[in-house]
Records
---
Amino acid sequence: MIKQDNEENKINILILFSIGLYISYFGYISFLKFYSFGYRDFDLAVHAQTVWNILHGSIYNSILGIDFLGNHACFILFLVSPIYYVFKHPLTLLFLQTISLGLAAYPIYLIGKEEINARIGAALAIAYLFYPTLGYTNLFEFHPTVFATLFLAYMFYCFRKENYKLFVVFMLLSLLCQENIPLIIIPFGVYAFFARKDMKWAFTSIILGLLWFVVIVGKVIPYFNKNTIQFIKIYGALGNNMPEIIDFILSNPFNVLKVIFTREKLLYLVHLFAPISFFSILSIKSIIISLTLFQHLLSQRSTEHTIFFHYAAEMIPFIFISAIYGIKKFYGFKVIKNKIPQNVFIFYILIISITSNIYLGPHFKVLKQIKMYKKDMWDYQKDKFLSKIPEHASVVATFEFLPKLSHRKDLYSFHHISMGYYTLSNIPYKLPENVEYALLDFNDFLTFNSFYTPGRSNENLFKFIMESDWGIFDKVGTIVLLKKGYNTDKNLFVTLDETPEITNKVSASVNNELTFLGYEAFYDEDADSKEIELIFYWKALKKIKKDYGNFIDIIDKNGQIIYRYIKPICYRIFPTYAWQSDKIIVEKYNLFIPKGIMKDIQSVKIGIFDYFDNRIYAMHSSSAQGMVDNAGRIIIDYNKR
């Protein structure tokens, strides 16, 4: 008995150490990601602003354009706010997320230990910490639903230990995390009914789950949402409203199966269950995730049926809990019983877990790519631009700037301007007139890919920037800081009817539809870090169908590329497919050269690519000898003025 206790104590220490290692590792990555502008959606900023506003007596979220309870019913943020009061920083949310997800390993260990034994319980807890879906959930922004991962795991443990009071406490805490948690709680009640415990467990789960879902989804969210964010669009293949969707599901079961069983969604199921060797499906407890899994599989939003985001957070604890009981059942089969040594089975669990993570998960990939989370020269430039915005000024910004701007009442996401609508909505978006600053990176991937529609978005951007009272407060590369009412003669680009005097004439054409007429290059020779001010002259030879962009290569004395800058021509505001063939386009761009690099530069070259297919196109010139290299790039002489 003493020997067994000693072993369990050692295993307990191992689990706590593993949890601590997980929290330290992902906490460190979260820290690096935050300071290197690695959070490139708006979820972290939305929740950071929400908690900041709660501390200032408001539940309005300016990024969303509604009270935050109209987006998701994350009442748990009211409980988070006292912690945020002490540690006022978006990193607080990221650290709480990591701590919550890491600590959920402990109830999984306890359940595994008590249902099977301590060694297998420990193996499953470690497998949980290496679970690919868990890692991606941890790394993708911040979401209050991650707290449900911990609360639901402890809820089940209290159910198993028949501690009704704590069971209800953890259930309520779980429900506070998000409005879809009843889709876990209700099936849990069905399971509890068949588990033949006192009926209070089943009735509490089913009744409380149903009431919560009906009240929150039917009354609370619509009240605060005011039809601004239309989540029903996600299920548009089934109907335009809840009655239509329910009718479709009940009357068209075969069509529902077609929606669910696509190649992409089947692969998602494999990614969910393969790292735990599909043991979950051997247990009836897997029914607990049925409704929420069904919800995600019916969604048209592709991010909901992939493990690379956060949508499986509430399912994760029950995938592992059902796996525990599945393994217990597996060991009970006559053909298996006493034939597989325990140590061999534990080794198998860990090998499958680690192998799955190597192929699917982020744990090892992040370790290999940790350099990309360290601040580079552009991150320091972004911090410099942020420092120029007053603390309480109203701002609209592209995604990567939002988290660091989130402690203010009036903050807006530029992607709404690009789309012209609110997120998941057909309501036109109008930015408030009182916005003072616009901080934009025209290379922000999500803004100018996922939320950029050629032909519509460029017109929205043109109207916003060129036809409004904005002045260029500062710019470098593709980063531009605009200030309302700021007097400046600077422009990002202009159109002319006639060709002006050009210092460096080139006349190189691309596909016989676009001509690069030439350029100007200016810089301060005495500065430690160079900003070469470039002016490019373009002309369309005919109506252009492509969306051409530039890349600028900085070449060292060995002929190697030191940096490649990617830039859209005319900042995605006036793309080449919108040009008229009789106009001259004069584009201005500040090329940033870091300290100490100027002396190593042999040449600067510009090339052309297409945003639609990412293909690189060569530029050709019969008159500009020595100005075009063998790869079709223009050689820029930055010494000329």
Note: The chain has three domains: 13-50+59-370, 377-484, 496-636.
---
Amino acid sequence: MSRSLALRYFAKLATLLALLASPVIFSAQTPAGGQSAVPTGSFQVAGTIVNKIGGHPLAGARVVLADTRNRQGAQSMVTSDDGRFRFQVRAGKYSLNAEKRGFLTTFYKGHELFSTAIVTGAGFDTESLGLHLAPYAVLSGKVYDELGEPVRGATVLVYREDRRSGIGQIQPITESTTDDQGAYEATKLGDGTYFVSVHAKPWYAVHPAPSQDRALPAAVDSSLDVAYPITYYGDATEADDATPIPIRGGDQVEADIHLSPVPSLHLLVHVSEGGTSGVAMPLFQKQSFDGMARVEPDRVNMVAPGVFEVTGIPAGRYTVQAVGSPNTPVNEPNQVDLSSNTSDLDMSSGNPTSSVKAKVQVEGETKLPASLAVAMRNSKGRVVSVGEVNPEGVAAFPNLSAGEYTFVAGSPTQPYSVKIQSGGGVTAGRKLNVPPASELQVSLALVGGEVTVEGVAKQSGKPFSGAMVVLVPKDPESNRELSRRDQSDQDGTFSLQQVIPGSYTVIAIENGWDLDWGKPAVLAQYIRHGQPITVFSHANGSMQVPGPVEVQPK
């Protein structure tokens, strides 16, 4: 796939994982039941919008107040010269956010997709609220060649560290091309840790076809037969050595990158012949943080059936696989170290890849939901393939390596637990064992969450606002997609929606948003002091956590 397609693919994976881990957008703004009655009457929600940098009041910011039970009736106003806003509302729960040109849209005590709802009445202070808007951060820089000249037309990828899926992952978020001055820019960035990579080719490079004895033509200057390796900020050629770029709101960060040419490889790559089903071509990829980056050769020519001449890539460690049309048989990817002395690469004798076709049913439903997607996750917890469920209820996963997998599933509005139903002895609980060169057909039973788990987070006996609340499933290592999160509201209440039947522990953590909350080792110390609950099969509606959930320090 092209780099732009790869970027969309990784974005799709990240979106699916974020959906499964945090299925309800702004779930902190949905009402929690089981709370004490709020007095009726007229109340004020008021405060000041300030610049997070320096704390100066912001005039002209648009402030929106929305009833969490009826968001269609949202009110809005523009702040005065002193940054003040004021709403007159009935008793209830409200989400509060503000936006201004040049600043990031901010929700009250917002973190990721969560925020804290304002509770009018009941003795809560709603008239001296403060929202701190962070100015956009800008990351820019220039790409230079070995002579210090700007490189135009280079592809620049900006990556960000993200923990929404429960485990910190570094994924690409934007892609751009350098201009004729070698410059790039990424704007509207929020607080976080970023990385930058550059894909480029020397404009002067010449990669001549070798003669029959594999020698390069004498007329070609070898100093021109070069390539640029993928280069990261810090001028590193491996992602593990990339220099992180910490960014805070309002920062104007410059990150220049310098490219250095290395000798180009000239390879004869042997792949399995596709026969009548199509042609399989070699694909070169390198590990890039928590994904794979495609390395584009300068030229790929078929010189004989199943033999390709490849030029214009640098030496290094690659994952190489022959890819073609969906019906073209290919072998499993090879991990290879290609040195400047490597001239032949035989991929024709490896194990053929496997495929899985999954017939999907949703328990209790006669019709499949729209935009239903199923993903396969390998033994390292990494999603390696995503299949959209077609109108016939089938998701296809071609070109899989042998190994053990689990399934995760979700639609834009609903996460699901997955039960594997398969013959042939290939299942082990929720796991699917995919043998080499196999074609498996399995049935998946999807169970949607119907229960809302509600409760109150407290610290030292008092309601606590803004805690990260996590519903941790039994065996969190294998059931991370069953986790749910929320943020406690001003009265300490929380609401964990679409919970699937099972055994759980509810925990609350103060300032826990930068934790790898999907890792069992991280959760262990908090689970000991959490509230255990059981959601029984066929339960629906809401259930209350039997006692307050103690907010624990990070």
Note: The first helix runs from residue 3 to 21.
